[in-house]
Amino acid sequence: MVLFSFSVFFQKYSHIHKEKTTLKEVPHRALECMKENLTMEDKDWGCCPKNWTSFGSNCYFISVESGTWDESEKKCSSVKTHLLVITTKAEQDFIIQKLDENNAYYVGLSDLQGKNNWQWVDQTPYNESATFWHSGEPNDLSEHCVILHFRASPRKWGWNDVRCNQHQKFICKMMKIYL
């Protein structure tokens, strides 16, 4: 697949611009677009912000900086995204291939009331049968936020509940922009 910078793509296909509102609504300075086979009429290009990773119909940003859970969600929100919401095993498997085993990453799952009522930041229903908790997790009623974390034994990525004021890296997720 050939990647195009958005500026070159925009010049070549300027008629598409009329279908969209304005680029001011896109908080990213550059997009990378790939030709895709889509069922959406006349929407053949799936775009992610430059330096984000594409999977399915979504784009992912893996941070190199750390922050608390709230700071991490605010950083994602500042570019019109949210912390990662994991909905399938395929998505979890894709993401963990991109991560550094020496770091942990905040995802968009929390229990801010401390009542074991886990909720995703985008209001996606929490499905207990589609979770990827490490064995024995969640395990502490004072830990209200979730990280994606690698355990050396049994050499596996999974979810772990932690205190929300810990500084961790984070992952943002957004829907692709289709042109």
Automatic annotation (TrEMBL):
Residue ranges of the TM segments: none
One GO term (biological process): adaptive immune response
GO cellular component: plasma membrane
Subcellular compartments: Cell membrane
Major subcellular location class: membrane
Residue ranges annotated for the C-type lectin domain, each copy included: 55-173
Pfam family, one: Lectin_C
MF term (GO), any: carbohydrate binding
InterPro entries according to UniProt: C-type_lectin-like, C-type_lectin-like/link_sf, C-type_lectin/snaclec_domain, C-type_lectin_CS, CD209-like_CTLD, CTDL_fold
Membrane protein topology class: Single-pass type II membrane protein
Key words of the record: Adaptive immunity, Calcium, Cell membrane, Disulfide bond, Glycoprotein, Immunity, Innate immunity, Lectin, Membrane, Metal-binding, Signal-anchor, Transmembrane, Transmembrane helix
Protein name per its UniProtKB record: C-type lectin domain family 4 member A-like mRNA variant X2.3
Gene label: clec4a
